[in-house]
Design brief:
Length: 418
């Protein structure tokens, strides 16, 4: 049997060439968006008395450019959902304006504008499907550099070369570090947790390493990359990435059947080996990592603030004003309440309290509505948990944009059955 090369088969048809060009542009857009979200995460632009994340205008600019070129298009379903979300927020604001103020805190127009502008990103989608394998490899290619930077950062601190914050190196007006904690001790001597060098906090490093592990398990399955991402996850000493991974392990079997069960068992075994190696080589560090999981029941810790106090705040608001379940209490109000305890609000509690339960349901639709390959379907639950439960990311483009790209904007093509 003779083999005919692609070159001898003649030029590609015009439609095929156009699709190939569109796919190349979409893969380039994926790399640029992930790179901007990760490497520019600590940088901001002055905006009045505050600053805004540089990733916001860069990401929206990249998306607008690709829409202008026709490689991104509006997704009808998510455009409808976003329109209904805007309508409901306006309706709730009109209702609240006609009622007495039960909280003494004025809504913030800027908070509402930022929320709607950044989440309008979800209305877009790929004009053509792209190779799932190529898409996953591009993403993990960027995340691998973050993992390498995080490992180097952790190791170099033992040589006195640690660099965990850009304050004092980069002009303050160009930084977006103020509301984040870059320097956190492990709890063993003076050792600091790795934050991936470019990322805001160790928790964000752990979350992106969890995403990289999930992608690697679903697609490329390269041992060296998996080991790199597992090391990054461990050296972040953060529990939020593990929570995202646990959701993945608990749901991937239901999404992918027997293959999903095999993936869950394989990832669990590999992480168990990594954890065992850490316990053997650095038992004090392993114990410090284990202590992170006890924070959920310890008031004042980050775990308690992130996963417990939001529900305390929600209970107090609903008890004082039951109508808030329907209309919300106004943009930005949930973070400025006068309560008898220190609290935080995660994404679902913030959206529910400020805009009402219908708005929260519509917001979830921005992640759920669209075409998903089985692998994307397996990522849905952990990505939604990452965005909604591990931080206030509804207005934080360095997390919001790449996660929406991963499960909403991207139309992927499976080139062969698994």
């Amino acid at each position: 049997m003779s083999v005919i090369s692609a070159a001898s088969a003649g030029p590609l048809p015009r439609a095929a060439r156009a699709q190939s060009l569109t796919e190349a542009r979409l893969l380039r857009f994926t790399v640029l968006l992930f790179a901007a979200s990760l490497f520019l995460q600590r940088f901001g632009l002055p905006f009045g008395a505050k600053s805004i994340s540089l990733v916001g205008p860069v990401g929206l600019g990249l998306a607008a450019f690709e829409w202008w070129r026709g490689t991104l298009v509006f997704h009808r379903g998510r455009v409808l959902i976003f329109g209904l979300l805007c309508f409901w927020i306006a309706f709730g604001a009109a209702v609240r304006a006609a009622l007495p103020d039960n909280f003494g805190v004025a809504p913030l127009v800027r908070s509402l504008a930022q929320f709607l502008l950044l989440n309008s990103f979800a209305m877009l989608g790929f004009a053509e499907p792209v190779s799932e394998a190529a898409f996953f490899r591009r993403i993990n290619g960027v995340l691998a550099w973050i993992a390498i930077a995080g490992l180097a950062q952790f190791l170099l601190q033992f040589a006195g070369l640690g660099l965990f914050a850009f304050h004092g190196i980069v002009p303050d007006w160009l930084l977006y570090e103020k509301n984040y904690v870059q320097i956190i001790e492990v709890g063993v001597g003076d050792i600091l947790k790795s934050n991936g060098f470019f990322l805001e906090e160790p928790s964000l490093f752990s979350q992106f390493m969890a995403v990289a592990i999930m992608i690697e398990a679903l697609g490329p399955r390269r041992r060296a990359y998996f080991a790199l991402f597992a090391a990054g996850l461990l050296l972040s000493f953060s529990g939020t990435g593990w929570i995202v991974l646990l959701v993945f392990l608990a749901t991937v079997g239901a999404r992918l059947g027997g293959r999903g069960v095999a993936i869950a068992l394989g990832v669990t075994a590999a992480l168990a080996c990594a954890g065992a190696a850490m316990m053997l080589l650095a038992p004090d560090m392993a114990a410090a990592l284990q202590d992170r999981f006890a924070e959920f029941s310890t008031p004042g810790t980050s775990g308690h603030m992130r996963f417990v106090t939001p529900f305390w705040a929600a209970g107090d608001v609903i008890g004082r004003d039951p109508l808030s379940l329907l209309t919300g209490i106004g943009a930005g109000v949930s973070e400025r309440l006068s309560l008898p305890y220190a609290y935080d609000v995660n994404t679902p509690i913030k959206i529910m309290l400020e805009y009402g339960i219908p708005a929260l349901i519509l917001y979830l639709g921005l992640f759920l509505v669209g075409e998903h390959t089985p692998a994307q379907g397996a990522l849905l639950a952990p990505v939604i948990v990452l965005v909604l439960m591990t931080g206030g990311y509804q207005e934080f483009p360095p997390v919001l944009f790449p996660m929406l790209l991963l499960v909403s904007l991207a139309r992927l093509r499976r080139e062969a059955p698994d």
